[in-house]
Amino acid sequence: MKKSILIMISLFAICMSNANAQGNVWGFRIGYSNYVETVKLSNMSAASASINVNAPGLEFGPVYYFLFKKNFYFNGGILLDVILPYDDGIIFRNGDKNYFVNMPLYLGINAPLGNNGFSIFAQAGYYFGYYFTSNSDVNEILNNFPDELQWGLGIMTGINIKRFKFEIGYKYGLSKLNNYNLITLDDGSRVEFSSKLSSVFLGVSYVF
After folding, report:
1. Is there a contact between 84 and 57 (Cβ–Cβ < 8 Å)?
2. pLDDT attached to residue 156
3. pLDDT tens, 97-134?
4. C-alpha distances in angstroms, 129 versus 78, 157, 162, 190?
5. pLDDT score recorded for residue 31
């Protein structure tokens, strides 16, 4: 885990130094997220089932903007998601605290609204991260889950008001949080559980 986080921080530092050298900007993002753990049960004699478990949380951290040319840019950063489960699930459970460190890698376009410092923007791309939990019982049950690298697709849009960016976004997890067999049925078949993590984000960034 420590090695993965250090690699992400090193990549962020390299990008930050390049951005500063070319006159680009950096800032800080904070907001509220609704996280969804989608749990799928398969390899059963009956039809496969899918369960969604919701949990609230916060996302915050430094971000930067690398300008390619007028109105086109690259957005990255190092963000910490603190997930506070309130529903019963396989990973999200009452009383557990979950954390997700992620690096967004988005391409964006900015459309000015006159010359008053207002503009709208849209960006999309991949994100890579590292998901872990503070609950030791879950780790033991899931064979040291969820100390795994994660990745997925993200999209974000919003409005710029001078140095403030008001944002709404969505992340769709493509990698599995877990994939394991838990139950053996009478006929000898196994019930396979797997889950993915997605989230809706609503927040604000301040650009320095």
Report:
1. yes
2. 97
3. 778 888 899 999 999 987 787 999 999 999 988 877 65
4. 9, 21, 30, 30
5. 96
Q: Which H helix or E strand runs over 129?
A: strand 118-133
Q: Which amino acid, 162?
A: K
Q: Which of 206, 127, 117 is nearest to 166 (CA)?
A: 206
What 173-182 contacts at long range (C-beta under 8 Å, 24+ apart), as own/partner pairs, is 173/197, 173/198, 175/148, 175/149, 175/150, 175/151, 177/37, 177/91, 177/131, 177/145, 177/146, 177/148, 177/150, 178/90, 178/91, 178/142, 178/145, 178/146, 180/142, 180/143, 180/145, 181/43
pLDDT exceeds 60 at position 46: no
Q: What is the DSSP string of 96-124?
A: --EEEEEEEEEEEEEEE-TTSSEEEEEEE
What are the structural domains, with CATH classification, of the chain?
2-207 (2.40.160.20)
